[in-house]
Amino acid sequence: MKRELVAVVLAGGAGSRFWPLTTNKIVFPFFGKSLFDFSVRDVLPKEVSRAVIIAGRNNRDALGAVGLPIPSVTVLQQKPLGMADALLAAASEIAGSELVILIADDLTDSGLIKRVVARGRTSGAFGVIPGWKTERYFPGGYLKIENHRIVGITEKPGEGKAPSPYVAISGHYVRSSDVLLGELTRTGTTGGDDAYERALTTIAQHEEFVMEPYEGNFVSLKYPWHVLDGMEYLLSRLASHRGKGVSICDHVVIEGNVYLDDGVKIFENTKIVGPCYIGKNTIVGNNNIIRTSHIGSNCVTGFNTDITRSYIGDRCWFHSNYIGDSVVEGEVSMGSGAVLANLRLDDGEIATREGDHKIPTGRNKLGGIIATGVRIGVNASVMPGVKIGEKCFVGAGVVLSVDLPEQSFCQQKTEYILGKNTKA
Amino acid sequence: MKRELVAVVLAGGAGSRFWPLTTNKIVFPFFGKSLFDFSVRDVLPKEVSRAVIIAGRNNRDALGAVGLPIPSVTVLQQKPLGMADALLAAASEIAGSELVILIADDLTDSGLIKRVVARGRTSGAFGVIPGWKTERYFPGGYLKIENHRIVGITEKPGEGKAPSPYVAISGHYVRSSDVLLGELTRTGTTGGDDAYERALTTIAQHEEFVMEPYEGNFVSLKYPWHVLDGMEYLLSRLASHRGKGVSICDHVVIEGNVYLDDGVKIFENTKIVGPCYIGKNTIVGNNNIIRTSHIGSNCVTGFNTDITRSYIGDRCWFHSNYIGDSVVEGEVSMGSGAVLANLRLDDGEIATREGDHKIPTGRNKLGGIIATGVRIGVNASVMPGVKIGEKCFVGAGVVLSVDLPEQSFCQQKTEYILGKNTKA
Amino acid sequence: MKRELVAVVLAGGAGSRFWPLTTNKIVFPFFGKSLFDFSVRDVLPKEVSRAVIIAGRNNRDALGAVGLPIPSVTVLQQKPLGMADALLAAASEIAGSELVILIADDLTDSGLIKRVVARGRTSGAFGVIPGWKTERYFPGGYLKIENHRIVGITEKPGEGKAPSPYVAISGHYVRSSDVLLGELTRTGTTGGDDAYERALTTIAQHEEFVMEPYEGNFVSLKYPWHVLDGMEYLLSRLASHRGKGVSICDHVVIEGNVYLDDGVKIFENTKIVGPCYIGKNTIVGNNNIIRTSHIGSNCVTGFNTDITRSYIGDRCWFHSNYIGDSVVEGEVSMGSGAVLANLRLDDGEIATREGDHKIPTGRNKLGGIIATGVRIGVNASVMPGVKIGEKCFVGAGVVLSVDLPEQSFCQQKTEYILGKNTKA
């Protein structure tokens, strides 16, 4: 008799690197759904009969509301101490089961996890781990492979030092939760954030772990600009659609796959170049250009706006703006002529700051990261990679090159030179 | 035998509250005509045989030129001391007559004054006063009514203290000018600016005054932003029209009632959403959007301009501008990217200053008030409610949040950080 | 037997007045060709059998590459000491010939030089000089004429002091180079930069010089804004053309003579008003307006750009810009909302600086003069007549009213007023 197959969903990260966007990134909205729907719900193999979601204090409430077609329970991880700690926190819920371990902020093609589970159940292997083949260095756990067996996982080996081109990603199948929990207990969680990888490496000495190779899409939403990567990937899977009550005026050009949700209105002389998603009841104004972007529901893009490769959430208002390679979370308004610039004058890589650290983003094109409730004045310019916290106001004409903490009001100091106009 | 019915037109206000716009507000232009045409000429009942226009020093010359279909005379009121003083200044011209008293900066539906006069002449009442029913507090004279008779007028009672919901507005019918002049003489004009209302209250003790109720449109042009109220009202009465020599290029969309005067040209990809008026020989450029606005004659709106709920006078030049909820008197030019912002970041009510006083405008959307001959540089931003006096220059990139007196030249102090470009 | 007719091409000027544009102005590109092609190659009479090009150190290499359909040799003029010095530098190459002397930065109608040479060879005159009739004062050499003979040339006589309305321009025919060289040697080159004119005046005492009157176009490219004059003239001669692989999207309007070179793409809702030239593989984006302009090859004009009466070289990138009456040499990019302003607020004549001197440009409309490799940030404003040297960066939001030397990085000093947002 087979054991019960349980999906363990790791969703307990603090999300602080995702600042200024929501700490509930697991439910970050895409297409009127949430990241969770794409990273977990859509990829669940049919053999899974129960889900155990491990949440943090920051997102337990939000995760309670996610819907799955199978019974699920949410377990609280007291502190964001990594995967090993998370699994141990859920020990009583997962004991005596087969496991498939999902990372809730990782996006993969919907068939991958299903293949992993099918292989785990039909082969004799103790574990199956998806190995994402990547050319470019990725700061994750790399698989060490000998004779077609995984013999270890090296966490963040550094560029050029990876034992293989394969990164272990979401969707680990483990035949026995008890073996894993036992080893995790022995390993302990105090030796660094790679305790899980070390435990797996130990088990792999006597049990067979095999790799399910994967060359498809993989996006891990750690930093806020990863929203753009996630969006790009999810848009690539989107089909064209015209919802109910969609209205499209004359001289509108729509190219490629464009999903227009119910009640969308598009005014004259606007061009939409897919893939694009436009959410419910959003109004795309006259003379716009929208390319490769996600626009949430109940937005108004106004006259003459250019939105390119950007994520826009719900209830945003624009008006003659340029928004390039930017993330605009929701309830944001921008005055006429305000720009989210997306390119340095020297075309160099755009870095952001995280406290005192400079974080390279790996992007030469990156605009602003704008949290919920921000308002930006007319003719303001937000420099590439700048992050603006929730409910900030940015005054007219400001050239903003620093991040703004939540609820700031930033104006530019103005000194007038006032004289008599002798030329009038 | 009936007495002669004389229209007394009160036009002697100093107009200083109308700053920075013309002190001759009585002839403020709408649709190639003037305020006077709408507030006086169009509403005159046919029973009126003569008009006495009471002008101030500031506008006597302009008022001499207004045209009426009946004989008229202009009387000078030496100082702007209110209605009582104005009527006494015209005493010799109006003695022995029936009167209908018109306030030249008040706009009402064209039938109201006619109804007032008809009722005055057919009923036995001594006087008829139009009572405008308003939900929102208006700083005017409120009617006190008992047993269907007006028993008094309370000037600016303060919010919540009005004796009725009815404000006395332009168009008072009085059966005997002599009774009125006598009482005004007794009352005197030194006891405050409500001498007229006090005199009427006294007369009402023994003569019958009745109210003609009115729930139509009423706009009193006291402050410059009232031009927008007047415009909105007058636009609502405008029918569609295509003048001689009008030229409309391809891909132009015109919706609603739009009056295009002779010689108007509209270039490609422009949308006009009525009600709108476009004056003679004005050129509306490519890729514009014009909504609910008045544009005077001989303007050029240039490329990519957005004019929304705004009054634009004659001979203005725009170019890639946003002009929202603004008054632009005439002969104004704006450089590419200049914006008249119309909304505070907090969506709050917009106030203006009058000397040391802060004046609430009652508007959450209000742009700039720009007098004749102003020029605004490229990428300049004028903050909501800012007033700019005649013949001012505003430099490129200025973020203007203060009013400018006539003939100012305002630039923003600029300090460059100049270095070697090591990235080129 | 006739002597050999040699074309002497004067191309040895230092070109420093042409700053910030290339010192090789003789090969300044127009329509994928060069100035030289229009000023020399196209105007060469068929009777010319050989060309002697006199180059300076700054442009000898570039001039070596120009192509002529007849044998040619390039001679180095050591220093830019004027026409007399240049001709003497080429003495050994031109001895014993008939001459036609061309000035390589002067543009004339293609028939003029041919008429001059034909007249020189058929009449008995020793010399023929084209006399350009001009109403407005031009700082050149004016012809003094008596009894249909030229009796002298007065160099820069000053306004109102010209001996005739005729300016001596490119294309002097001289029957004997030896007579000219002899007189130039006697005159010497040390007495000022009018040595050539003085020598001609002396020869004219005993030899017959006649004038070929000319009322056609004449442009001398001395200062960088003369590129606009040259462009305007050359555009006026351009016919409509659609190259191979040209693609024009829907709702594009093209009026007048527009030359679209191979591979040009024009996106929706764009209007092009000729005369215009668009170079190979250039992409004109959506919702643009392009009027009376030259755009080089491999440019992208982006969304919503307005280019009016401007010269744009190769490989430029724009995006929601206004570029009016400007010269943009090549490899220039401008961020969204950046503007090259072309009009003073007082509509006055625009002056530029050359060291400590203020140079009037004779233009009321003149934008920026932007050299190769410049990058301009979003919402920056470049004031009329400002010159920016090669490889400069101009930061976002800068209002630039000074010239920038090569490879400068110019930012505007920004001081933030940062507070708590109590209104959010």
Describe the 3D structure:
- The structure is a homotrimer of 424-residue chains.
- Chain A has 424 residues and is an alpha/beta fold.
- Chain A folds into 2 domains: 5-222, Spore Coat Polysaccharide Biosynthesis Protein SpsA, Chain A (Alpha-Beta Complex); 227-410, UDP N-Acetylglucosamine Acyltransferase, domain 1 (3 Solenoid).
- In chain A, 15% of the residues lie in helices and 34% in strands.
- The first copy, chain A, is built from 8 helices and 40 strands.
- In chain A, strands 1, 4, 5, 6, 8, 11, 12 and 13 form an 8-stranded mixed beta sheet that branches. In chain A, strands 15-18-21-24-26-28-33-36 form an 8-stranded parallel beta sheet, with helices on one face.
- Chain A is elongated, with a radius of gyration of 24 Å.
- The A-B interface holds A 249-251, 267-269, 286-287, 303-304, 319-320, 335-337, 345-346, 348, 375, 377-379, 393, 395-397, 412, 414-424 and B 251, 253, 269, 271, 287, 289, 304, 306, 322, 324, 337, 339, 341, 343, 345-346, 373, 379, 381, 383, 391-393, 397-399, 401-402, 404, 407-413, 423-424.
